[in-house]
Design goal:
The protein has 17 helices and 17 strands. It has helices at residues 13-27, 39-46, 50-62, 79-82, 110-121, 124-130, 140-150, 168-179, 194-203, 219-229, 250-262, 284-287, 315-329, 334-346, 348-371, 395-404, 436-450, and strands at residues 66-69, 73-76, 97-98, 162-165, 185-189, 206-210, 212-213, 216-217, 233-236, 266-270, 292-297, 309-312, 375-377, 385-388, 407-408, 410-411, 425-428. The strands form five sheets. Strands 4-12-11-10-9-5-6 form a seven-stranded mixed beta sheet, with helices on both faces. The chain has a four-stranded antiparallel beta sheet with strand order 13-14-17-16, covered by helices on one side. This is HTH gntR-type domain-containing protein.
């Protein structure tokens, strides 16, 4: 049994024990996953009260050194294993656990970016070239690298079909600018990405919801909407749908593509999360390359500040989208596209992607541990989970009570299209927590809330 020697530690006993845990981890006497002595056993060994050990373990957990598992004990969690968020100097882990935004897990990218910039700066010919005007759809070598990268999602494409944009959001905007006019009705999943709805509002479009199930868009509902509205566009996310985590099967994708052909509807396939998913079905753009505009970006996999996205479009509308790109921004920054290309060609991009996936697996294991007993859609590779609340909870009440306990989440109202009747639900973005310990602290609170009933003072009658 690990027993700390407290003679050279000063201050209150519980602080000394927490300091001893930190020292033992630094010296390698305690390693990730090691189970600490029970409160009673360590209290008896050190001659202190059980309350002192409880305070010591709580202090160690606050520092991110220990994870307490209900009914199992306290376990060492080293900063590396926690997937600790890279902290800017002066930042500290906040008391509030904010699970509202779908962010890539924050890791230190400074060295990678610095090295790429240094290599580029030493190549004066290349540097001067990318500082000049380039083709609106992007430099050929940047598009070739992007086509190679998108191949990891199962999309077989070529540089001539691809355009480089200022991120996925920009790609959605450009595609809708090219395909629609103000006042047009367009279709989307009934519960969908808020960024898409922001674009439709900006462009004066009228989105209509298509009913969903656990695989996303229901083909019969899509066909009924085509008959009723004669839309030009369907927007959807077939892999790790935001917010529901729905994944379309290959058969479902083929059915949706067939309906789109029959009713002459363009499909915008948002595949921003597809790189994260293992063994994903083939992209819609692979099944129906004549009807699908494929969108992907570096933001969720490599780094949010690498504002590079990619659009793969059928020949029929390729020029319309490139015209929208040129009219809005002339071209995407070749400097940023060059950095992204270098990361892809060197293998660093794949390394960073695998790093994200490994951390997501660990975080989603925590999601399953604390919320698996509820109606919660969790995927090992997803940035988020979708929790349908048990009765009598309403999302507004749950959000308020969670926030009072320093946990922030968002409800289904942020994702509903038009007047669609969605279940009372919340999205939990595990990727935005500062560390696994930080996430676990929030999940404990949410699990406790779910086992309770709403406080009467906040009930809505």
């Amino acid at each position: 049994m690990w027993t700390p020697k407290l003679e050279h530690f000063h201050g209150p006993r519980y602080i000394a024990i927490a300091d001893a845990i930190a020292e033992s981890i630094a010296q390698g006497d305690l390693n990730d996953g090691d189970r600490l002595p029970t409160h009673r056993a360590l209290a008896d060994t050190l001659g202190v009260t059980v309350g002192t050990i409880t305070r010591a373990y709580a202090e160690a957990e606050r520092r991110g050194l220990v994870t307490a598992r209900v009914g199992r004990g306290s376990f060492v969690t080293t900063p590396h294993a926690q997937g600790q968020r890279f902290m800017i100097q002066g930042e500290i882990e906040p008391d509030c656990v904010d699970l509202q935004l779908n962010l890539p897990i924050a890791h230190d990218r400074a060295d990678a970016l610095s090295q790429s910039m240094q290599e580029l700066a030493s190549d004066t010919v290349k540097m001067n070239r990318i500082l000049g005007y380039q083709p609106d759809i992007g430099m050929p070598e940047h598009r070739e690298a992007a086509a190679e990268w998108l191949g990891l999602t199962g999309l077989r494409t070529s540089a001539d079909k691809l355009m480089i944009t200022g991120g996925g959001q920009n790609a959605i905007m450009l595609t809708l600018m090219a395909l629609t006019r103000s006042g047009d009705i367009i279709l989307s999943e009934a519960i969908t990405y808020p960024g898409f709805m922001a674009v439709t509002h900006q462009l004066g479009l009228r989105p209509q919801p298509v009913a969903m199930d656990e695989e996303g868009v229901i083909p019969s509902a899509f066909e009924d909407a085509c008959k009723q509205f004669s839309p030009r566009v369907l927007y959807c996310t077939p892999s790790l749908q935001n917010p529901t985590n729905a994944i379309m099967s290959e058969a479902r994708r083929e059915a949706v593509a067939e309906i789109a052909r029959r009713y002459h509807v363009w499909i915008i396939e948002d595949s921003v999360n597809a790189n994260l998913l293992e063994n994903a079905p083939p992209p819609l753009a692979e099944i129906a390359p004549d009807k699908v505009i494929y969108i992907n970006s570096a933001s969720k996999t490599l780094a949010a500040g690498i504002r590079v996205g990619w659009v793969v479009a059928p020949d029929e509308i390729h020029s319309q989208i490139s015209n929208a790109l040129r009219a809005s921004q002339w071209m995407t920054s070749p400097l940023i596209a060059e950095i992204c290309t270098r990361w892809i060609k060197s293998g660093l991009a794949n390394q960073l992607l695998e790093e994200q996936k490994r951390e997501l697996i660990l975080r989603n294991q925590l999601m399953t541990e604390y919320l698996g007993a509820f109606n919660c859609r969790i995927n090992p590779y997803s940035l988020h989970a979708w929790l349908e609340l048990p009765e009598p909870w309403r999302s507004r009440e749950f959000i308020q009570q969670a926030q009072r306990r320093n946990v922030k989440v968002i409800g289904e109202d942020n994702f509903i299209v038009a007047q669609y009747r969605a279940p009372q639900a919340i999205r939990l973005s595990s990727s935005s927590a500062w560390s696994q310990n930080h996430l676990e602290r929030g999940l404990k609170i949410l699990a406790e809330l779910l086992h309770q009933e709403p406080e009467p003072s906040l009930s809505v009658f």
